[in-house]
Amino acid sequence: MNNIAIQTRCIAATETTGTRIRARTKDGHEITIGFDHKLSGMRVHYEAVRDLVAAYDLDWDLTGLRYGETSDGYVFVFADSVVDF
Fold it and tell me: Residue 9 pairs with which residues in a beta bridge?
């Protein structure tokens, strides 16, 4: 599971679509979901990560997932992604 990062970002609403969250990996896995206004902050971005894993039927254990905030979303990484040199 090392070196997998999932980046999320908030996509602003337009006249025709509501606010959305996009989650993607560098390997081309990508999903866009509607923004659940019942959730806040990191939690709504985490839901996009969960939906991405489910949509691609990925065997990724999200237990212990780490995250950090960016200018327009979050980056999620797995606990075993460590700097080791």
Answer: 22, 73
